[in-house]
Amino acid sequence: MENQINLQLNEQAVAGLRESAKWSTFLAIIGFIGVGFMVLAAIFMGSAMALIPEDPYSRTGMNPFGAMKGFISIFYIVMAVIYFFPILYLYNYAKKMKDALNYRNSDTLSEAFVQLGKHHKFLGIMIIVLISLYIIIAIGMIAFFASMAGGM
Predict the structure, then answer these.
(1) The 3-state secondary structure of 55-116, one letter per residue
(2) pTM (predicted TM-score)
(3) Which of 67, 94, 103, 139 is deepest in the core (most CB within 10 A)?
(4) pLDDT of amino acid 138
(5) Helix axes 11-50, 69-103, angle to 10 degrees
(6) Nearest to 24 by CA among 97, 91, 116
(7) Crossing angle, helix 69-103 and helix 106-150, to 10 degrees?
(8) 38: closest CA among 76, 5, 73, 1?
(9) Cα torsion for 67, 46, 86, 101, to the nearest 10°?
C-alpha cells in the first residue's frame, strides 16, 4: 500500500520547479557535450600516443610513455561512462518535471523526483569514493615520505 500525501503546489513552487527543470536541461546538455568531448579525447589521445616511436636507445626499447599508451584512452572512456549516468538522471528529471507541470500529472512528478534522487545519490556516492581515495593517497604519501626520511 502506498503512502500518499496530497500536497498543493502554489504558483511560487511551480515557478521554482519550472526554473529548476530549465537549468537542469541546460546542465544536462552541457554534460552530454562534455561526455562527447571525453570520448573524442580518448580517441585522440589513443591515436597520438600510438604515433610516439619506441626509443631504440633505452635498455627496454620503450620510451617512458609506452606503458601509458592504452591507459590514457581507457581512463578517458571510463570517466566518460561514469560521468554519463548522473547527467542522464538529471536530464530525465528535467524532462519528467516539465511534463508533470505541463500536464499536471502527479505520477510524472513523482518519477521526476525519483530521477533527481538517483542523481543526488550517484553524486553523493561518487564524492564519498573520491574523499576516500584522497585519504588513501594522503596516507600513502605520508608513509612514503616517512620511509624516505627514515632511510637518511
Answers:
(1) CCCCCCCCCCCHHHHHHHHHHHHHHHHHHHHHHHHHHHHHHHHHHHHHHCCHHHHHHHHHHH
(2) 0.84
(3) 94
(4) 98
(5) 160
(6) 91
(7) 150
(8) 76
(9) 180
Are residues 87 and 28 in contact, defined by beta-carbon separation less than 8 angstroms? yes
Cell numbers linked to 109: 512528478
pLDDT of 54: 67
For 27-76, write each residue's pLDDT tens digit.
Answer: 999 999 999 999 999 999 888 877 777 666 666 656 666 667 778 889 99
Any residues with CB less than 8 A from the CB of 28 and at least 6 apart, and which? 87, 88, 90, 91, 94
Quick: pLDDT tens for 97-150.
999 999 999 999 999 999 999 999 999 999 999 999 999 999 999 999 999 987
Task: Compute CA distances 77 → 10, 35, 61, 83, 146, whole Å.
Answer: 44, 9, 28, 10, 36
